[in-house]
Amino acid sequence: MISQNAIDTLRRTEIGARGLFIDGVQIEATSGASLPVTSPIDGRPFASIADGNAADIDRAVKSARKAFERGSWSRSAPAFRKKVLTKFAELVEKHADELAVLGVRDNGTEIGMAYKAEPLSAAGTIRYYAEAIDKVYGEIAPTADNVLGLIHKEPLGVVGVIVPWNFPLMIGAWKIAPALAAGNCVVVKPPEIASLTLLRLAELVSEAGLPAGVLNVVTGRGAVTGEALGLHMDVDAIAFTGSGPVGRRLLEYSARSNLKRVFLELGGKSPNIVFADASDLKQAAVVSANGIFRNSGQVCVAGSRLLVQSAVYDRFMDELVAATTRLKVGDPLDLTSDVGAVSSAEQLNKNLGFVARATEEGAQLVTGGERILTETGGSYMAPTIFENVTQDMQLAREEVFGPVLGVMRFETEEEAVRLANSTVYGLASAVWTSNLSTAHRMVRAINAGVVHVNTYGGADITVPLGGVKQSGFGRDKSLHALEKYLELKTAWIAL
């Protein structure tokens, strides 16, 4: 684990101006324009990034296509790709302290979570796909004796990757690592408010021996660079994690351009269901509080809807409020902070807007609901709990992506299922029960891509992550993610 002394040293590091990473080198944007990087820790700018545009996306895509056609990566032996990616994982681990602090300065995640969830998780993901790729085989079809049917697995070509600001390294690695392992070339569009770690990642993979042009990073505003990537006629696929409205636009861009594949992992309004027979209500309350309030609620699978069976409702709420009020919100680069900053002033204001609307609609504020630590200049919000929430309220239907929890009562298992499935989302969920039969019934009944049982979060790289309904249809993690980045080609050979 990183030490406080190392954190304090790294937080003083001058970052300066960062350019685009295209064809293996850092360059300025075509326009020469840049964007300031403001830290949510104190509201002060501490770096700048290039403000890329459509011309820069075109440069990056052309570099990726040239590298793909050259074949030094796309047609290389899987063992070679494994060697480079393994070295890449080692370099990410070596620079974990630097990457963790850099990311926290950029987006405000508490360092204790960021260190594990960003560089260490990214390194593990890269190593996983490095180890997997030389174990992926084609197939021989069961044909007649006079025919040989072969099914080849080939890289798609140029993959566009668009990642969100909450965990850019972790989520970026979920997409970049399998795409590279499969032999593709990649153009990454980082979030404009959290680009620095992905730019550093590109430098590290180049140092690991990745050929120039195989991985490119274009920073800038999503409405400009993201649109250009989505509309580009020479991009074969887009892998995206982010909001529903942007996901819809990417589908439209695909239809308007070359019908590129689009893989979407979108938002959630995940139910966390506590039955009266849960074996340890105190532990369930602690985990539930962390499941919504860590990283200031800025987690796609956050358990933002809490459903508690009436028989234990009062007792559980006492434990939940106690666990919540014990959480220390503060400087995310202080190891004693449990919760860091909201990613930006804009996101903080959005969160407070949800609080105001919930109050107007009749929900009862239990704790929190306000901006705190204003003297720091940063974006901090108290963990917030509302009860008496009903399904017609905005708080029960829309994703906040902030530290705001809505609580509802339920009486029966059937009512819990109805409430759980009553939103347009279906990303994650959880069930707390000591009854094995109840657990299995709920796993089948809840319409979500992930169902936790007697826990919340923690699923590792071995299992897929993705949703149903308007949470999208992309799947990151596990061996299944490789399927997105491989093309099937049939060879039908008369003997």
Describe this structure in words.
With 495 residues, the chain is of the alpha/beta class. The protein folds into 2 domains: 4-266 and 472-494, 3-Layer(aba) Sandwich (Aldehyde Dehydrogenase, Chain A, domain 1), CATH 3.40.605; 271-460, Aldehyde Dehydrogenase, Chain A, domain 2 (3-Layer(aba) Sandwich), CATH 3.40.309.10. It is 38% helix and 19% strand. The chain has 15 helices and 22 strands. It has helices at residues 4-10, 54-70, 78-94, 96-107, 111-133, 168-181, 196-207, 222-231, 244-256, 281-293, 313-326, 345-360, 394-397, 413-420, 436-445, and strands spanning 16-18, 20-22, 25-27, 34-38, 45-50, 139-140, 147-155, 158-162, 185-189, 215-217, 237-241, 261-265, 271-274, 305-309, 364-367, 371-372, 380-381, 384-387, 404-410, 430-432, 452-453, 486-494. The strands form 6 sheets. It has a 7-stranded mixed β-sheet, with helices on both faces. A 5-stranded parallel β-sheet has the order 10-9-8-11-12, sandwiched between helices. Helix 7 (196-207) links the parallel strand 9 (185-189) and strand 10 (215-217). Helix 3 packs antiparallel against helix 5 (111-133). The longest helix is centred in the N-terminal third of the chain and has 23 residues, at 111-133. The termini are far apart. 52% of the residues are buried. The mean pLDDT is 98.
Layout of secondary structure:
Elements: H1 4-10, E1 16-18, E2 20-22, E3 25-27, E4 34-38, E5 45-50, H2 54-70, H3 78-94, H4 96-107, H5 111-133, E6 139-140, E7 147-155, E8 158-162, H6 168-181, E9 185-189, H7 196-207, E10 215-217, H8 222-231, E11 237-241, H9 244-256, E12 261-265, E13 271-274, H10 281-293, E14 305-309, H11 313-326, H12 345-360, E15 364-367, E16 371-372, E17 380-381, E18 384-387, H13 394-397, E19 404-410, H14 413-420, E20 430-432, H15 436-445, E21 452-453, E22 486-494
Parallel strand pairs: 1-5, 8-9, 8-11, 9-10, 11-12, 13-14, 13-20, 14-19, 18-19, 20-21
Antiparallel strand pairs: 2-3, 4-5, 6-7, 7-22, 15-18, 16-17
